[in-house]
Write a structure and sequence with these properties.
mainly alpha; flat; single chain; 2 domains; 121 residues
């Protein structure tokens, strides 16, 4: 294990707040910092994957909460149409496809990294 680079007490304090609309930004920021901290500390794969899974699940759910509340507010004010929702869904598909392509390219680069099984000339 490596020494911490980030302030772990600050990360833990950021993760102490109960999940809510008011704490969503704080919790999302702290979760990304916890991932970076775990990477910096070079923890083993299984606990690292568990940590990333928990962080991504929380981030995804908080993002959904923020969107749901904003959509509800817009519906209550009569400021949202089905067409706008359709446009938003199409945009999200486009953003997701772009991220998928980026992730694929990055994963290809990782797969090209030398391994202990490679022959050295």
């Amino acid at each position: 294990m490596a020494d911490p680079i980030l302030n772990e007490d600050m990360i833990l304090a950021g993760l102490c707040a109960p999940a809510s609309l008011d704490t969503a930004d704080q919790l999302q920021e702290a979760s990304w910092m916890s991932i970076a901290n775990a990477y910096d500390r070079k923890i083993e794969r299984e606990p690292f994957v568990k940590l990333i899974s928990a962080a991504m699940t929380m981030n995804n759910n908080l993002g959904r909460l923020l969107v749901t509340v904003r959509v509800r507010d817009m519906l209550e004010r009569g400021k949202l149409t089905k067409e706008q929702l359709d446009e938003a869904a199409a945009s999200l598909i486009g953003y997701s496809e772009s991220a998928r392509v980026d992730l694929y390219k990055l994963t290809e680069l990782v797969a090209q990294c030398p391994t202990s099984l490679d022959k050295v000339s």
